[in-house]
Structures are given as structure tokens and as C-alpha cells.
What we know:
Elements: H1 13-24, H2 26-46, E1 49-50, H3 62-74, E2 80-85, H4 89-104, E3 110-114, H5 120-125, H6 132-153, H7 171-176, E4 179-180, E5 183-184, E6 197-204, H8 211-230, E7 236-239, E8 249-255, H9 257-291, H10 294-318, E9 322-323, H11 329-353, H12 358-385, H13 393-427, H14 431-436, H15 457-473, H16 491-497, H17 514-526, E10 533-537, H18 540-552, E11 560-564, H19 573-595, H20 605-617, H21 630-633, E12 647-653, H22 660-671, E13 673-677, E14 694-698, E15 700-701, H23 703-737, H24 740-746, H25 748-764, H26 775-794, H27 800-823, H28 831-870
Amino acid sequence: MSGASRNPNSHSRLAYAFAELLVRKPGTILVVMLTLLALSTWATLQLRINSNQLDLISQDLQEVKDVKQVIDMVGGSGFLMLAMRSSDEAAMKKTADDIAGMLQADKENVRTVSYKLPVEFIQQNMVLFVKTEDLVEGKRRIMAFLEDKLRRSNPFYIDMGATKPVELNLQDLVDKYSSVGKKSIRDDYNISNDKKMLLILIKPMWDTTEIGKTKEYLDKLNGDLAAYSAKPGNAKLVEDYQKMGDGQTIAYGYTGSYKTTVDDSFAIEESLQPVTIIALLSIFGITIVFFRKLAPTFIVVSGTVIGTLYTLGFTYVTIGELNMITSILGGILMGFGIDYGIHFTFRTRLELGAGKPYDVAIRDAFVNAGRPALVSAVVTGGSFFVLMVSEFRGFSQFGFLAGCGTLILGFTLFLWSASLLALVGRINPEWPKKLIGEMKPPPVNSAQGQELRIPRPGLVLGVSTAIVALICAAAVPWAGTGEPPEGKLGFLDRVKHGVGFNYNTRALIPDGMSSVLLQDEINVRFNISSDPMAVYTRDLDEAEGVYRELTQNAHKYPSIDQVVSIFTFVPPAQTAQANEKVLIQWKEEMKNLEARGFSIAALPPEMQEKAEFFMKVLDAKPFDVHGVPANYKSQFENLPTAQNKGYLTFIYSSVDLFDGQKMMQFADETRDIPVTYYPGRYDKNDFDPATPTAQKEFRAAGATQLYAKLARIVLWDGKVTVVLTALWILAMHFLDFRNVKLALASVIPLGVGVAMMLGIMSLTGLRLNFMNIIILPILLGFGVSHGLYLLHRFLEGTSPLVALRSVGAAVASSTLTAVAGFAALLAAAHNGLRSMGMVACIGLITTLVVSFTVLAAVMQLMHDRRSRESTPEGGLPQAPAGEGDSTRAA
């Protein structure tokens, strides 16, 4: 395609007509743009961030419906945990009583508070839960001890030293049955076995997904605790996640699903604040370095800001709010969008350098730089639009807004830059050149008259291809698809395992996140996992079926640590009946002892109180679920205001839920639970055991199911969007060039650059994860501009070297500004954001390097072939039309 074909007759007449309008009416266009800017600024100020993460997932998903059902029943999923540490047990318990009373009085924010549960009922009835053989063994030891006491209390007993007194040692049996589930029955309080940590479980009036409300409440709660500490006689409360308190000072901290969700979300937000400033300063500095003037930098940066505000105003009109994903929209668009202003300004400098008047230079720059810019904007925007296929509304909304924003920014920067320069030119025709400078067309021939060219393109292509191939090969998992082992790997091991995917979400959160460290400490001290999932059942019959299925078939659910239900507090019927017989026999034996003169008063003082309690234990009678006290039942029943009536069974995991693979395994095991139960057992007085059983599948609900679903969506979307983006790019390039070879050549930097990026990630030990995987389609969309601008300039008739010298600086500048934007993420405290920044920087730099090596060599080979085909047989090569003149026909 020669320069002659790039004339107004073959070019889009609409583009030329619009460019002429810009040159003739710059003031009018600027007034319209500034009016829109005022409206967009107002709309931007109205935008609010919706922090409810549940709204980001399709409300039609079964996992969302299940969670809403649990929220309706008990007011939320999970807890806000307030953990207190102190070496003074009494001070901790007193403070817990005071704080619990204060929390329960806050009817506006607190639904329920749980920090103690009377254990006397379980203590008295524990003999019905123990294995019969253990009860018999305990009976044997106690009776042997009492018999010995009775014998030795006889005044006629003479101890000749032949036998030692029988010692009563029940510690092994006490330890074995000192808890129900993981709840100790030795103490009413939620206190650790070492008596140095006490938990208060708070159920706020909202769910964990409403992180804005949680953040406000935490600030209020800190204020309330500070006010409590200031009162005379109260222990001093200090928020500390490492130190142990004493009698005067109690260290406290927050964790649980409410706190960890807030910490992670706000860590992202707080990380982005300095990142945005760093990115803006870096972008500003890079544009000054490349332009070497302040005026073009101001024009481009101001246009980018205006376009970003237009996009945010568009967001308010179309969606009405931002979410935790789209809140980073402005920063990403500024890094990408400035690309269009840089290319227009560089092209205008080139046209001015060719000696054209300012109006002709602006018009030709608008048309000639506009076509690749338009294609680039459409392709990049389309790459964002691909994200709209995601089931995750955070991604789909981001794709829609970023796609529209890309088009808005491209159009805005061309209009803004061209109108400003045209308005200045109307005042003084020489001012545009003084403001932005000029660039003389690169020379076509050397001083000796020979055409300047990329030397030995075949060798350059061969060497660069070999290097690229070796780097790309490192991304391949030669050892198979299995995940590499944890920890640091040697160089050869990294090459063997390839780039891989890191499922462990601990690698994404900030290092040393206090709520996670506290949760880990609680797991160790209390031997419990994090917040449970819940299974909803309509009645007690179904609840018993779920409890029996999960506890009697534990081998089917290896990821479950414990199951807590109202039936946890009901002794197994057969065991209770067998133990009752032992207790009846035991009572008879005790009566015989008493008839022989035994008395509790004869026991040592420290044992008398226990003996009185022991006599009550002997009266324990088997009971069913209806015998469970109301304060135990209430933990599993629906709230009075709930629409969904029934019971919940809570399931705790045995695996680290921060590990994505284990989390998904836990979710899979509890997604569909097949249950066989007896309908009517507990709501019919005349229940017949011969009643046929019913079968039904139940689903666990909770944050784990939601996050597991989201993880699968991200993994699937990461693959689908990359494929769809690649197809979109190839299709648009073919439509642009109408030539398969040219279309393939234009995507060389993109495809090869991304493959190199994966190879470098493997060599350096970086891995894909749930956050940086979304960078891949974005990189594909942006990386397309490298090949587009170079090939379009080349197809105007210039040689490859001239094309590189003409637009290479603009390509490098626009790429480095995007790199600067993403490199700023390396300063973020959030590891997930840092990984996004690192992956993006590597990908952008590799595509740029490939553009200036592999693509440059390919263009030189294409140019040589074009020259041979245009040279008369036996004649000398002729300079291709258009060389030495950026727009020959224009």
C-alpha cells in the first residue's frame, strides 16, 4: 500500500471533513468539551462506591440465594470476633461481661452477642454422651476409691502398710470428654484452654459483604472501648495483635469474616491512593522526557484527565455507582488513554517538521494518526468489552466501563489536542510549532546515497526468534500440570514446572495482615477453624438427617473438621439408654455404701463439692431434642423476624480456606449433601418408627461457597476472555489491513510479548493468581497498539527504519507511560495489586522489545521484497513512494 493510496480520495472523507471542522471551529468544540467537562465533574462527585460485595455476583446464582436465606435466618453469615488477651483470667472475664452488656445495648448495630454459654446442663448430662465402656471404667475407679475410703474410715481398720490408699485418677476420661465439639464444658466463657484468650462473637445487623457499614461500626466500637477504658476501675484496653495483656491492660483485636473482608478491601483502596500519585508523577515525567517540552505534556495530560472525568460521568449516567473493582477504573484508563494524545502530538510534530502549515499539519495528523488510533481504540475497547461475558458483575461492569472509557479517551484526546493547537494557531500560526516543537522527517538515505535500513534482518530475526523461543519455552510445565512445591525453587525447578498458578490467596493479601494473624492464633488456641458454613433445614427431622449424614459418614467429607447442630447436644439414643442402666446400677451401689456408713462429709473438703455434683449426675435421664435448653436451641433457630423458618447446622472446615484449591474442595464436598431422614419424627406424637424415610439434597451456604464460586468464575473467565480477545484482535486486524500476512505481522509484538512474559514469570518465580490473571486480556488489548502504529506508518510507503524513527518514540513513550502506571502498583502494600503491576510491566516491556526487534526485522524483509517487486528487471532499486514525506499525497 503506497503513499499515493493514502490520499483524500481513498481515505475516509468523513475523517477529513471532521478534521477540517476541527481546524475551522476549534473554539466551538472547546466550549462544548468544557461544558461536558463541567457536567461530568458534577456527575463524578455524585458517584459512590457500593461496598456490598454480594451485589457483584449475579443474584440468580444458587450460592447467592443460599447465603441470603442464612442471612435472613440469623442476620448474617459469619461473625465479627473480638478477641481479648490477658494473663489475668478474672480481669478478662469481668471485662468481657462489661463489654458484652455494652454491645447488647446497641440495638442499632448489634443483633446478637455470644461470649459465654452455661455449661451446667451439659456437665450434668455428659454421662449420657460418653461411651458405655468408658462410663463403666469411670464407675470402677470411683467405686474402688470410695470403697477404700470407707474401709480406711472404719475405726477397726488397721493399716499394716501392706497396701497404699487407692488414688482417684480420672484425668484421661475427663480430658476425653471435656468438650462438646470444640466447646469446652469446663467453663461458661469462650476462653482458650490456657485461659489467656477470650472471644466475643458479634453478629452485626448487616452481612459481611457490606464492608462500608462494618468499617463505620469498627470505628464506633473502638471509640466505645476507649471510653470504657477511661472509666475508673476498668481495665485499660489496647488494640494490639502481638502482645499479651495483664491485669491492668487487656490487649484486644478483631477478626472473623467481617474484619478480614474489610481489611482486604480497604488494603486495596489504601494502596491505590499513593499509587495514583506515583503513577501521575511518573507519567508526567516520562512525557516531558520524550517531548522535551512542558506544553505538549500539559496538553496530553490535561486531555487524559478530561477524558477520565468524561468516563466517570458516563459511569454515573449508565450504572450510577462504582464498586470495589471499578473504583480503580480512573487510574487504569489514565495509564492507557494517554497513549492517544502522545501519538497525535508526535504525529503533528512530524507533519510540522515536513514544512506544512499548522492547519494542514493538524488535519493530516488527525487523519493519519487517527486511523491506527481508531483501530487501536476499537481493539482495546473490545478487549475490555470481552469481560462483559463474566458472571462476576465486578468484571462485567469493569469491562463495559473500561471499554467505553477507552473509546471516550481516544476521541477526547484527539479532539482536545487538535482543538487547542488549532485555536492557538488561529491566534498566531507560528505558535503551535513553538508549543509542541517539530520533528524533521527521518532521512531516507545515508550520506553516501544508500538507503538506510535495518542491517542483516534475517540474522536479527533468527537470533531474536531463538532467544524469544527459549524464554517462551520456560513457561511450559515440562514436569506436567501438577502444581510446583511450596517455597523457593531453584532455577532448574522453576523451568521444569513452568509458570503455574498460585491458588493460595494468602499470597494476595498484605503481609502481616492483623486480622489474619489473629485468626491463625485463634485456630491454634481454640483448635477451631474460621467462620463456618451453614446448612438450612426446614424442621428438626431434616436437621437430624443432615447431622447424622455428616457425622456418621465422615470419610465422605475429609475437608470437614466438625459439625455443630442442635443435635450435638442430644446424646445418641442407644448410648444414653445403655448408660442409664449403668447409672441405675451405680445408684444402687452408692446406696449400699451409704448403708455401710459412707458419707460425703467423710471425703476431703476439696472433693465434697464435686461429690455433691456427682450425685446429681447419677440422676441423668435420656432426652431427645425437645429436652435441649432454650439457650442452646437459640443458636440454631431462626430469628423471630425471619421469613425462613427452620434450623441451621454449622460446618467447620479442616483445611486452610486461604488455599484456593482446598477451599473449592471444601465447597464441593458441602455443595450437595445427600440426606436420608424420617419425616414427622419430631412433630408427631404418634410417630411410627416404621415410617418410610425421605431423601433430599441439602446445600451448605456461606462466604466459602461464594468465594469458591467466584474463584471458578475468575479461572474460567481468565481462559475465555483471553481466547475471545485474541479472536477479536485477529478479526479487527484483518478488517483493517485486509491482508492475512499483514494482520499476523501486526500481532507479532502482542502474541510473542505475552508468551515471553509468561516465560520470564517462570524464570523469576512469579506465578499467575486470582488477581493478575485478569491482566492478560488487558495486556492483549493494549499491546496491539505497538504493531498497529508501526505497520501503518510503514504502509504509508516509508522504510522500516524510517517508520521506527517516525513513530518509534511515540510507541516507546506511550508504552512507558503505561508501564509507569502499572509500576506504581509495586509500591502497594497489597500483594495482589503488586502482582498485577509486576505482570503488566513485564508484558508491556516484552511487547515493546519484540516490536523493535522481531517486528522490525519482519518489516525490513517485507520492505526488501516490496522493493524487489517494484524494481524494473535489471534496473536499480527505486525509493518507495512516500519516503521522505510523511503524507506525500496530503
